[in-house]
Write a sequence for this structure.
């Protein structure tokens, strides 16, 4: 940890180095008195609240000189809860030094040098490409997969910093309104740096089960998805700075339409944020190792999952860490999702990953905080039922169609945890009667919050008895503002 004397000396040197038109170009810290008013003392890693002051975070490398932070390619979300991006990451989490470059594995092994092809279908220099499978017939160097990708979907642009370090790849779609990122999308394998897969406000991703973005703080944005299994991060592709952002669903639906269908998104290691709206028959895996529901990723961090609009037959896995899942229930226009309720896990969905005793996970139900709580049984309008399923005798109740597949297997009621915890059953019906969930299930969730704002209430979940105990000493969670700006052009 750096000492106050070190900070004072360093700041004095840097202020002296500044010209009158600060910020100090080329320096890792700039104190712009005219803009910031010197109304606070910067702290380590203070990029979230003081955009013009950066003191490098303590990353266990006290002798490192961090690269100056240039213009960020990522948008700034107006509203509470969002970190400020830097030049290398959407959340400011990646702050490299020059010694970190060049990053290995950023270029395709065959098509990373712009060599010339003369095969009749492509004559001339090839583009410099990220890792992928760009030949259909590799011995003949037909370049067919890239030609398919390029003509139907888009291309790639290298992302470099102000001194020329290549740190990521950005997908450039052919259609400005949205890419149809179909089966040819599986030819792109992702990189160990930043991958920005922005499919556009009407973009769709579908019909393949082997999509990857690799390590690094990746960003994935789309409006529709179906028949998809996609990894923005996984243990097998590395956990290097792997804080990912997923915006799944750009356009709020005004009816009961469901845009994300039969899809699974795995974010793997790191502290990931997922925003998903209008979903049916889909899973959001924020921390299982390589997507396997029986194993937690040891490099997983504190994740946030925000569910908006219409939600039906969904599964959420928090993985390791202290995770928060926010469900805006009263936004639904589905009427009833009885027998298609959610399964929400603080950890994983099967095996030893079910009961993760290390983290504290919270489910936030955005409903009136004073909603009447009733025990297991009927729940009339204006009530939230909470209790233990009457048939739960300790036997694991599997979702049979998913059983046996390590990527999808999960329990509905999950037996007993190490301290006799059980799956808790809930059911909500709005006071107007416009929406009811039927039963839905939470496993290894320690805290439940009702509502947002000053009136929100936080409860401890008694997982042995299926009851709630109000915890007045716990602070209500405030979710990040809606990330709709990410769906636009930037």
């Amino acid at each position: 940890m750096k000492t106050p004397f070190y900070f004072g000396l360093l700041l004095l040197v840097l202020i002296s180095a500044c010209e009158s038109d600060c910020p100090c170009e080329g320096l890792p810290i700039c104190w712009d008195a005219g803009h910031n008013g010197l109304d606070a003392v910067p702290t380590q890693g203070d990029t979230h609240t003081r955009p013009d002051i950066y003191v490098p975070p303590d990353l266990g490398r006290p002798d490192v000189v961090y690269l100056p932070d240039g213009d960020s390619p990522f948008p700034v979300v107006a509203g509470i809860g969002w970190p400020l991006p830097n030049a290398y990451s959407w959340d400011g989490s990646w702050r490299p030094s020059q010694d970190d470059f060049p990053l290995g594995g950023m270029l395709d092994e065959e098509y990373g040098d712009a060599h010339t092809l003369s095969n009749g279908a492509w004559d001339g220099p090839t583009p410099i490409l990220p890792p992928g499978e760009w030949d259909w017939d590799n011995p003949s160097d037909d370049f067919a997969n890239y030609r398919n990708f390029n003509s139907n979907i888009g291309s790639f642009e290298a992302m470099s910093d102000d001194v020329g370090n290549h740190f990521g790849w950005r997908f450039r779609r052919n259609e400005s309104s949205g890419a149809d990122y179909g089966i040819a999308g599986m030819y792109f394998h992702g990189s160990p740096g930043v991958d920005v897969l922005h499919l556009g406000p009407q973009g769709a991703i579908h019909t393949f089960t082997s999509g990857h973005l690799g390590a690094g703080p990746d960003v994935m944005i789309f409006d529709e998805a179906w028949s998809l299994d996609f990894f923005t991060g996984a243990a097998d592709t590395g956990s290097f700075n792997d804080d990912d952002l997923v915006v799944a669903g750009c356009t709020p639906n005004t009816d009961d339409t469901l845009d994300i269908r039969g899809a699974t998104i795995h974010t793997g290691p790191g502290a990931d944020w997922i925003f998903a709206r209008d979903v049916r028959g889909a899973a959001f895996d924020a921390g299982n190792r390589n997507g396997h529901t029986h194993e937690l990723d040891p490099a997983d961090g504190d994740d946030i999952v925000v569910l908006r609009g219409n939600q039906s037959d969904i599964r959420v896995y928090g993985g390791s860490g202290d995770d928060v899942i926010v469900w805006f229930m009263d936004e639904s226009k589905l009427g009833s999702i009885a027998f298609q309720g959610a399964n929400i896990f603080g950890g994983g969905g099967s095996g030893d990953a079910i009961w993760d005793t290390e983290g504290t996970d919270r489910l936030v139900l955005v409903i009136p905080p004073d909603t009447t709580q009733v025990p297991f049984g009927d729940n009339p309008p204006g009530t939230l039922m909470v209790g233990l399923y009457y048939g739960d005798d300790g036997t694991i109740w599997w979702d049979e169609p998913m059983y046996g597949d390590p990527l999808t297997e999960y329990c509905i009621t999950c037996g007993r945890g190490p301290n006799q915890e059980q799956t808790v059953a809930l059911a909500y019906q709005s006071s107007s009667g416009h929406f009811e969930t039927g039963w839905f299930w939470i496993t290894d969730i320690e805290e439940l919050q009702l509502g947002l704002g000053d009136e929100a209430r936080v409860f401890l979940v008694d997982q042995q008895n299926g009851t709630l105990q109000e915890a007045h000493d716990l602070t209500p969670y405030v979710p990040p503002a809606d990330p709709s700006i990410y769906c636009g052009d930037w």
